[in-house]
What does this fold into?
Amino acid sequence: MKVKTKLLTGAGLLALLLLMIAGPAAAQEGPAAVEQAVLDNLWVLIAGVLVFFMQAGFAMVEGGMVRSKNVGNIMAKNMADAGMGVMAFFCVGYAIAFGTDGNDLFGTDGFFLSSSGTFVPGSSGVGELTTPTFFFFQAAFAAVAATIVSGAMAERTKFSTYLIFSALMTGIIYPVVVHWTWGGGLIAGWTIGDASYSDFAGSTVVHSVGGWAALVGAWMVGPRIGKYDSSGRARAIPGHSIALAVLGVFILWFGWFGFNPGSELAADVFVPHVALNTMLAPCAAMLTALSTIWLVSGKPDVGMAANGTLGGLVAITAGCGTMNNLGAVITGGVAGVVVVASVLYVERTLKVDDPVGAISVHATCGVWGTLAIGLFARYDDAFLGRDDAGLFYGGGLDQLAMQAVLVVAVAAWVVVASLIVFGILKATIGLRVSEEEETAGLDISEHGSPGYGESVAVLPAGG
It folds into this structure.
């Protein structure tokens, strides 16, 4: 009897806890709605944890692709992106992105999460996401957008300057784009024919935002010492650990299974479809990138294969909810070729020094993935409003044109905003360390200690 009473008491407390998590609206819908709401919140929270873990992946990729004398510095920047990024998004970014009392350009309520709506509707139509769940997920996205920039400006940028840009990126630049799109603002209201924009998890909203800012930052800070010879030809400056970089790629790939499937914002039967597309596209991209660089250079370059994998992940991020599996494979396969061509173009033609290929992975492949929806969109998801919107499914050119408008509008905002911010920083506190500091390495000059400890001789006992 006592055991039965304890079980009933426990069940009652659990039911009460579920009601508290799910909220009053779900409670009124009955037990099924409560269960769905709890599942939605738990799944999106877990997905947010996976997205946050991507910070470790970025740190490993960037750490492996820079020289050992700058490892500590790049790790510090990645840590700062997490800390500074989440705090800036908490203070002002979330309000600008999702505030409902603002206008089409930016929100004006919910600063420090005060006066923000208690619930955000789940896309399943059953249950709701609590504000802590939704904020946690979105803050992890904001930190990703900032981290993209650090790799492109690696090995010569002042740490203090980067901290300021990271705060402004996650507090203002990125949230404005989110408000225009996922927040229901400016771009969300635009249509061409019957086509509205689509970007399921952020090929443009997240990745190209970071990629365009990376392009501006890398251009303004200038190339690393010795990157180009007297005739302007690019020299290779290898990173110190391809093992670290590839480990980072796999960590990022793992985290992407939260990034894309979590963007469904519900625990429903569509999540596995999104996850499968997220697996297929980077596999195809890795193979095409490896094949392309092999044909171009005569060697199957591991670093380019790694960037191809990431490029495929970025490209499918927009269309993972609208494409069938074949569309995902084609999108990823094209991304692998695109990332190789872009890396070579940025380095040799634009003369922009990007040590990790962040511009090509996130900006170029972000653009391609966003446009690919206009070609391969098959399912009615992610704001499309109808099935078969892609050109190859009889949808015409309207969706492709709408996707191009999204790309151009976001690029224009981020490039202009980044030029202003970096321009002010360059004119005041400066973007770049001195030549002596760059030569010695930023670990010593910026942080006072090496990223890797030096060997220390141990004297024998009594010696």
